[in-house]
Design goal:
Elements lengths: L3 H5 L4 H11 L4 H19 L3 H13 L5 H13 L3 H14 L4 H11 L13 H10 L4 H24 L4 H29 L2 E4 L3 E5 L8 E6 L3 E8 L2 E5 L5 E5 L3 E3 L1
Antiparallel strand pairs: 1-4, 1-7, 2-3, 4-5, 5-6
Helix pairs in contact: 2-3, 3-4, 4-5, 5-6, 6-7, 9-10
Length: about 260
């Protein structure tokens, strides 16, 4: 199995930064600064100075930049420091921006092998699994672009049909494009809904999950670093959570971080 060090590579996020320079001249200074920080983070990582690498990568986000490759590298740095919770957290954040990134998927699976809590997911309808599979193929930005593009092309084909004698090919093209618009716009709506459901990761070595939002409630179980969950509610300094197997409880906010 490929390990984290092998998968680290020099992710060419820099290329993406440079490309943006040509389209957003007003953001040039910020992009150049973020690129320099990213390079310094990579150098610190290669030297084995993971604390410094984390600091440099974090500075990129402090400038308002969100990039899947930086999240990926940040996850690698935390993994090398044996901080599984924060490693998994950042791999998840990377995948939220680039769902098809093979390295993030592989490293997330690898990191989860070391977690203490092995939670089996509830059995769900195969159609639901298919829906999640399809949605995981696309990022939010990609679905937005595809829905907008298919809509615009549908309008264009519709106009051409009005002014062209040979309508058959255009009609089929319009049908396909309209179908694409329905699929991608619907998928965008569903993905927006799923993304509105907050998820989190335990980043503390362990966290007591109780039957209610307080230390005086019954202890249900102890969660450990790297445990993932969905947030169903909150009260003061507690989150009401649900695990993949359907188990629910309340966990202290200070022990977790939102993806």
């Amino acid at each position: 199995m490929r390990n984290v060090k092998i998968l680290m590579k020099r992710r060419i996020t820099i290329l993406g930064f440079i490309t943006i320079l040509f389209f957003l001249p007003e953001a040039r200074a910020d992009i150049e600064s973020a690129t320099a920080l990213f390079q310094k983070g990579n150098e610190s990582y290669e030297e084995g100075n993971f604390d410094q690498a984390i600091e440099e990568y974090q500075k990129v986000f402090d400038q308002g930049m969100r990039n899947s490759k930086v999240f990926y590298n940040l996850g690698n740095a935390y993994f090398r420091k044996n901080q599984l919770g924060k490693a998994i957290l950042n791999y998840r954040r990377a995948l939220s921006l680039d769902p098809r990134d093979e390295d993030s998927i592989a490293n997330l699976r690898f990191a989860k092998l070391f977690t203490l809590d092995k939670i089996e997911e509830q059995t769900v309808n195969p159609l639901v699994n298919l829906l999640h599979w399809f949605l995981d193929l696309w990022s939010m930005d990609e679905l937005t672009i595809l829905a907008s593009l298919s809509y615009s092309l549908s309008i264009g084909f519709g106009i051409l049909i009005l002014f062209t004698r040979s309508k058959r090919a255009l009609f089929w093209g319009l049908t396909i494009l309209f179908f694409g618009f329905v699929v991608f716009s619907s998928s965008l709506g569903v993905k927006l809904y799923f993304d509105s459901l907050k998820s989190g990761v335990v980043i503390a070595p362990e966290a007591k999950v109780r039957s209610g939002p307080g230390e005086d409630y019954t202890l249900q179980f102890t969660g450990h670093e790297g445990l993932e969950f969905q947030i169903k509610g909150e009260a003061e300094s507690w989150y009401r959570i649900m695990l993949p197997n359907g188990v629910r409880g309340w966990i202290p906010k200070e022990a977790v971080e939102i993806i």
